[in-house]
């Protein structure tokens, strides 16, 4: 097989990378350049690059769709919780403010500990919600949502609040 000799100029960084690759692969620099040139000039090369790009874009689209879905779950979860909390919360009497704050700090610390354990185990609440929704019958889920809209529990009495504050619940 006859070959044509070419003298080319490349950037110094490319030359260093070519040297390292040739040593690492155990082939000549000419062989690497010939393979790269053949790939670049191949009529199938552009199709292969296009297919690889399309595959990557599809994967990114699926990841983006999952992120959007998860974000919607988190937004709705927060909205339902805030509505529930604001519906059932009653003002704390002035005499119980310090105890309520202390209880709030303790509950927050407990929440952070539980969250840390949950994350360390690699569990995902969003994934659990999707699994729960996937396990439920879609017709049954939509029917129960129509029949039983958000209904807050009855408001606690002053006595039950004092008992909760005292018990740390």
Task: Explain how this protein is built.
- It is built from seven helices and no strands.
- It has helices at residues 12-25, 29-41, 43-88, 97-120, 125-135, 138-147, 158-167.
- It is elongated and about 95 Å long.
- The model is unreliable at 139-158 and 160-169 (pLDDT under 50).
What characteristics describe this protein?
single chain; mainly alpha; 169 residues; disordered C terminus
What is the makeup of the main sheet? none
Uncertain ranges: 139-158, 160-169
Give the termini separation. Answer: 86 Å
The chain-level mean pLDDT equals 80
- Report the helical percentage: over 70%
In one word, what is the shape? elongated
Number of helices: 7
The class by helix and strand makeup works out as mainly alpha
Beta fraction? under 5%
String of helices and strands: HHHHHHH
Number of strands: 0
Which radius of gyration do the C-alpha atoms yield?
32 Å
The gist of it:
76% of the residues lie in helices and 0% in strands. By secondary structure, it is mostly helical.
Please write out the topology.
Layout: H1 12-25, H2 29-41, H3 43-88, H4 97-120, H5 125-135, H6 138-147, H7 158-167
């Amino acid at each position: 097989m006859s070959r044509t000799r070419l003298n080319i100029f490349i950037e110094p960084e490319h030359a260093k990378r070519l040297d390292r690759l040739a040593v690492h692969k155990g082939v000549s620099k000419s062989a690497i350049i010939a393979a790269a040139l053949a790939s670049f000039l191949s009529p199938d090369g552009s199709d292969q690059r296009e297919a690889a790009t399309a595959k990557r874009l599809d994967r990114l689209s699926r990841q983006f769709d999952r992120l959007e879905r998860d974000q919607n779950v988190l937004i709705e979860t927060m909205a339902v919780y805030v509505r529930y909390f604001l519906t059932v919360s009653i003002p704390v009497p002035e005499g119980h403010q310090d105890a309520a704050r202390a209880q709030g700090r303790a509950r927050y610390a407990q929440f952070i500990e539980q969250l840390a354990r949950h994350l360390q185990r690699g569990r995902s609440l969003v994934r659990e919600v999707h699994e729960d929704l996937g396990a439920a019958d879609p017709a049954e889920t939509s029917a129960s949502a129509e029949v039983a809209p958000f209904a807050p529990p009855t408001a606690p009495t002053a006595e039950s609040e004092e008992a909760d504050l005292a018990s740390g619940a």
